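Let us practice reading a record.
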Amino acid sequence: MTWLGWIVIGGLAGLIAKAIMKEEGGLLKNIIVGILGAVLGGWLFSLVGADGFGDAGWIWSLLVAVVGAVVLIWLIRLVTGKK
């Protein structure tokens, strides 16, 4: 996946995760949370033997990124104490 693909997937994943978690933020925050969530999601999925990223297709990559972004937002809330 190219860097532009990472930004698009990250932006979409961040937007979806933001809606799921009822989080506020702009486009840049969505992209950052989505990309970091994609890395976290890829690592989590690899722990259970599933393909995190790579040649699995953009829909699977988006799903992994959304799961990772939701977990990332949850962890940030856990550490900061914010709801």
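A brief commentary: Residues 58-80 form the longest helix (23 residues).
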